[in-house]
Amino acid sequence: MLKKHSYALGLVWLVAIFVLPMPFLYTLSSGLPAIYNRMALPIMLGVIAYVWMLLVIYIGTKPKWLDRLIGLPHAYMLHGILSLAALVLAFFHKEGSPSSGLIKLTGDYAFNLFLGLALYSMIFMAGWLTSRVPFLERLKKRLERLFKHEISVWLHRLNLLATLLIFIHVQLIDYIVAIKPFMLLFWLASVGVVASYLWAKFKPKSEGIRARLVGNHAIAENIRELVIRLPEKAKLQLRSGDYVFISFPHLKGMGEPHPFSLVNSPKTGDPLILAIRGDGDFTRALANIQQPTDVYVDGGFGLYQSVIDDNQAKELMIVGGGIGVVPLLSVVEGNPDLKTQFFYTIKEGSSFIYADKFREWDKRPQFTSHRQVGRFSDAYILEHLPEERENLVVLLGGPISMGRHWQKIFKEAGLRSDQIYFEEFSW
């Protein structure tokens, strides 16, 4: 059940914050010469910061096992919070353990690089943060006219350089190098993370599976439908409600993978259908891509179907708004036997997409749709809550503010948090 997801999320945080640094701290404290006891705490803080930065780099490779366990949105939140926390610890390490020469130089350069990247990332790459701080959200939208997403990605990779500087920094400290058990862990962790990163970037099909874009047309104002035909025997593990990362490496400015949700429920031999709103440089440039052409697809990612399966759901209530309705369409198509109520809202001046799907689904005895321009009132949706709620699952999709609103409303109505799932697209 969703309790399983919540348990996994808590366990991942526990492992990241406490378990991973512990062997490093134990081996270091056991071998640290007594003469350095007064600097023991700052040294330990520096070690924790380094371990967290290694974990941050690993999370940046988008490990699929971690997505299926807690979801990429939660993984990226962990990534962002650990980055900031590591920077704070690095500051106290720097202030509490003075050094000189190359040791100081490599440490200072690494810290300054981390600091600059952290400030930049807080605006451009930490969607979990900007979505909660209106000032940062407004600043991000203004600055995105100058700083393209591809630039942000490459700048973010300078974290690797900063981490390398810290690696060198440690090798220059002779009393640390003399602690063999610690250095063994230090080397194993560092080499392991670098190997994982290089494998993720340069392994065969690291960009995803090469497929063919065979359809590309507008289905509403500023919304395009892409139809992608996968090669035979494509080894993508896709489920209803998933999203995939797509890229066009042969086209200028289109080489960085971007995530988009499936409209349809993936079945062997069927093309993938994506519906994409033109919000940024990449999405607006899709209108200029001629088909057929090569496109790289990596996936699947997402937890909607896991939530349904783990809960052994017998009934769904789905609330979707705007383009956020897309993965929920895939969920409905992939779960035709579940009793489902679907509440779909759009802003005034917008258009409903895939109205034909709703007309077809409304013929099912177990499916009911509610569509309107403008948000539904809380009372209207709550009055449709079934009396028997034990096997009810509520799925949400849409703007972040909308999703968080309905999470709060359903919890206040007595539903457990593990019955409600909202997958935030906040990066």
UniProtKB/TrEMBL annotation:
<protein>
    <submittedName>
        <fullName>Ferric reductase</fullName>
        <ecNumber>1.16.1.7</ecNumber>
    </submittedName>
</protein>
<dbReference type="InterPro" id="IPR013112">
    <property type="entry name" value="FAD-bd_8"/>
</dbReference>
<dbReference type="InterPro" id="IPR039261">
    <property type="entry name" value="FNR_nucleotide-bd"/>
</dbReference>
<feature type="transmembrane region" description="Helical">
    <location>
        <begin position="72"/>
        <end position="93"/>
    </location>
</feature>
<keyword id="KW-0812">Transmembrane</keyword>
<feature type="transmembrane region" description="Helical">
    <location>
        <begin position="151"/>
        <end position="170"/>
    </location>
</feature>
<dbReference type="InterPro" id="IPR017938">
    <property type="entry name" value="Riboflavin_synthase-like_b-brl"/>
</dbReference>
<feature type="transmembrane region" description="Helical">
    <location>
        <begin position="40"/>
        <end position="60"/>
    </location>
</feature>
<dbReference type="InterPro" id="IPR017927">
    <property type="entry name" value="FAD-bd_FR_type"/>
</dbReference>
<dbReference type="InterPro" id="IPR050369">
    <property type="entry name" value="RBOH/FRE"/>
</dbReference>
<keyword id="KW-0472">Membrane</keyword>
<feature type="transmembrane region" description="Helical">
    <location>
        <begin position="109"/>
        <end position="130"/>
    </location>
</feature>
<dbReference type="GO" id="GO:0033215">
    <property type="term" value="P:reductive iron assimilation"/>
</dbReference>
<keyword id="KW-0560">Oxidoreductase</keyword>
<dbReference type="GO" id="GO:0005886">
    <property type="term" value="C:plasma membrane"/>
</dbReference>
<dbReference type="GO" id="GO:0016175">
    <property type="term" value="F:superoxide-generating NAD(P)H oxidase activity"/>
</dbReference>
<dbReference type="GO" id="GO:0140618">
    <property type="term" value="F:ferric-chelate reductase (NADH) activity"/>
</dbReference>
<feature type="transmembrane region" description="Helical">
    <location>
        <begin position="7"/>
        <end position="28"/>
    </location>
</feature>
<dbReference type="Pfam" id="PF08022">
    <property type="entry name" value="FAD_binding_8"/>
</dbReference>
<keyword id="KW-1133">Transmembrane helix</keyword>
<feature type="domain" description="FAD-binding FR-type">
    <location>
        <begin position="206"/>
        <end position="307"/>
    </location>
</feature>
<feature type="transmembrane region" description="Helical">
    <location>
        <begin position="182"/>
        <end position="200"/>
    </location>
</feature>
